[in-house]
Design brief:
The chain is α/β, with parallel strands linked by helices and 271 residues long. 41% of the residues lie in helices and 17% in strands. The protein contains ten helices and nine strands. The protein binds S-adenosylmethionine. GO terms for molecular function: S-adenosylmethionine-dependent methyltransferase activity.
């Protein structure tokens, strides 16, 4: 493929998603494009111009240009803090109202089911929303069907007992349909200012996606979550690596960085 064709496609992906792909990520995108070009009739166009003229191809490209690595109870220390402190506190503040939880770069759903199963095990009612830019991972979330590699033997293992009723052969997981149906799923592009974020959320998980964005994009998304989405007294969790890179100059007013042991998170102050 021509260098220009590839760099135009990478620039298009960045404009559409905010993602700035690293070299290793770019080679995965290149492999997809090479494969895709053999499957379709480009009608004499290069792939970039084909996408520009065939809008449905853009979704196909974007569904294959994201990194979707995830697993159940990832970063289990965060789930421990939710279990012992934050979820019970939220419930006692909210009374009979459900705790509203948003997994904002949900990938195939292991994160939102982990949150749902943990809260349910504590007798806490939730309203759960899973969103992603990638529609094929959201379909996987809807199916609730996972291979054994979504369950880890080290990180997350402390909470794998919550999955045990749903293990099928070889430690694969099938989340029951009744539970799958409780999760609202939507395509939301975090990078677009016009995207409509869920309202009045008590707990936002937005983990392992900031790593792909510029500092300016991280700042804008954090601000939009605080302005449009997060309820007073609500919490935002990034991955531990990501929160370590958030400089105090990009933390929106009204949001405080808190820690409990080695777990860091954001809390929206009550005004
Ligand atoms: C590595 S996965 C993280 C999954 C899960 N949050 C976790 O930490 O295990 C990153 C996800 O971010 C999604 N993503 C990338 N850019 C996005 C954007 N602009 N808006 C919404 N989701 C995006 C990808 O499709 C992918 O599913």
């Amino acid at each position: 493929m021509e260098d220009k064709e590839f760099s135009d496609i990478i620039a298009l992906i960045s404009r559409q998603t905010g993602i700035i792909p690293r070299e290793s990520h770019k080679s995965g995108i290149l492999n997809f494009i090479e494969k895709r070009k053999k499957e379709i009739d480009l009608g004499g166009l290069d792939y970039y111009n084909y996408i520009i003229l065939n809008k449905s191809e853009l979704d196909i490209l974007l569904n294959n240009a994201t990194v979707n690595e995830t697993y159940f109870f990832r970063e289990e220390a965060q789930f421990s803090l939710l279990k012992t402190k934050l979820l019970p506190e939220l419930q006692s503040k909210l009374g009979t109202s459900p705790v509203k939880i948003w997994s904002a770069a949900a990938s195939s759903g292991e994160e939102i089911y982990s949150l749902y199963l943990l809260a349910s095990s504590l007798g806490i009612k939730t309203e759960c929303i899973a969103t992603d830019i990638n529609t094929s991972v959201l379909e996987k979330c809807e199916s609730g069907t996972y291979k054994a590699n979504s369950v880890k033997a080290v990180d997350g293992a402390k909470f794998n007992y919550l999955l045990s009723p749903y293990f099928t052969q070889n430690k694969a997981v099938q989340i029951p349909k009744e539970i799958c149906a409780k999760i609202e799923r939507n395509k939301i592009n975090l990078s677009k200012p016009e995207s409509i974020f869920p309202k009045n959320v008590n707990l936002v998980f937005i983990r392992n996606v900031f790593v792909y964005f510029t500092v300016e994009m991280r700042k804008a998304i954090l601000q939009k979550i605080v302005d449009d989405s997060l309820a007073p007294d609500g919490y935002i969790f990034l991955s531990m690596n990501e929160i370590a890179t958030i400089d105090s100059t990009i933390i929106p007013k009204g949001l405080e960085k808190c820690s409990d042991g080695n777990v860091f998170y954001f809390h929206k102050k009550v005004t």
